[in-house]
Amino acid sequence: MKKTLFAFAAIAAVMFSLSSCSNKGQEGDENAQAGEATEAAVEAPEDVKPFDFTPAAPENGKKKAVVELGASGFNLFIITMDENKNWKQEKAEFGQSNVAEGATGVDAVKGKLNDYIKTILAEGVDGKDIHFVVSSGAAKEPIVATIESGLKALGYVVNKVTAEQEAEYAFQCVMPKEYEGSAFVVDLGSGNTKVSWKEGGQAKSVETFGAKYFQKGEDDTKVYNEVKSKLASIPATNAKTLFIIGGVPHKMAKKMKKGNERYTVLTTDVTFFDDIAKDDDKNKAGLNIYKGIVDATNPGQVVFDWDANFTIGFLLNMPY
Q1: 3-state class (DSSP) for residue 66
Q2: Which residues pair with 302 in a beta bridge?
Q3: Are residues 226 and 186 part of one domain?
Q4: 15 plus 153 within the same structural domain
């Protein structure tokens, strides 16, 4: 597995005074999910049934942290995990990267990283347990090569992941073991969408368009048809439950969340979310992808996880 972000001594040595690319607490578009106050949920459609599941809490665990540079989001996650890979989220902060628009440079990234590092150290995370990950969607953007070179020159270790790895990490983070044989996971990101499941005990995944496909001039109908075609390979036995994360699903879940729940059940009726698509091209595109997913798989239940992010799966995959 790849090296950690940097040694603890390097953290103490490298300090920056540059401005950050976004305010702390600002919602990041990739997977800004946890601990956010939401407006009152509207009455749920009839297809929405409760999801009763409580993940096992870590025992005698230790803290680990990861910073994610995505196509839209620039986020921080701190978790406590144990040797059995049980975990809970301790802290999350969300920012915007604007990588997809080519509007983020090395100075902005390292400035925000400096802010995040201070937060991480204040939370008591050991330097060797801090990691920096570039999402597969962000890695496709030309500006990321420049950012990567600049950060490496400053001593940062940049962990780039492929779409296949991202799908695997999302699965490890989101999927309860009790559901592995009857469910699948969707990470609907800005740069791409990753879908993962297990079939005959073997990991399977597909990649398709992300919610910013409209910036590439892609047609809605073309995207819908490709999503539907690619997800047709998921067996019906795996479609009983769809676990979903991502920026647009986050907006959908805000409309339906009740209290401080870890999981929010989403309706499969896409028209229920028409209001979040008004004057927002990304949400409109994300809902088009969601409709393709739902139409292809006809899931019995769709569950949004407020605490999950594929980068937490990255942490779970690291040596304890």
Answers
A1: strand
A2: 242, 266
A3: yes
A4: yes
**CATH number, domain containing residue 142:** 3.30.420.40
What's the CA gap between 101 and 115, in Å, rounded? Answer: 23
The residue whose two tokens read 């990950």 is: 133
Per the CB < 8 A criterion, the answer to whether 292 and 228 are in contact is yes
What is the full per-residue pLDDT of the chain (320 aa) written as tens digits?
Answer: 444 444 333 333 332 222 233 333 334 444 444 444 445 556 767 778 889 999 999 999 999 999 888 877 789 999 999 999 999 999 999 887 766 666 667 777 777 888 888 899 999 999 889 898 988 888 877 777 777 777 777 777 788 899 999 999 999 999 999 999 999 999 999 999 999 999 999 999 999 999 999 999 999 999 999 999 999 999 999 999 999 999 999 999 999 999 899 999 999 999 999 999 998 999 999 999 999 999 999 999 999 999 999 999 999 999 88
With residue 47 as reference, give the H or E element that holds it: none
Q: pTM for the complete prediction?
A: 0.83
Per-residue HEC secondary structure of 134-197 comes to ECHHHHCCHHHHHHHHHHHHCCCCCEECCHHHHHHHHHHHHCCHHHCCCEEEEEECCCEEEEEE
One domain, residues 127 and 103: yes
- The CA-CA-CA angle for residues 166, 96, 289, to 5°, reads 50
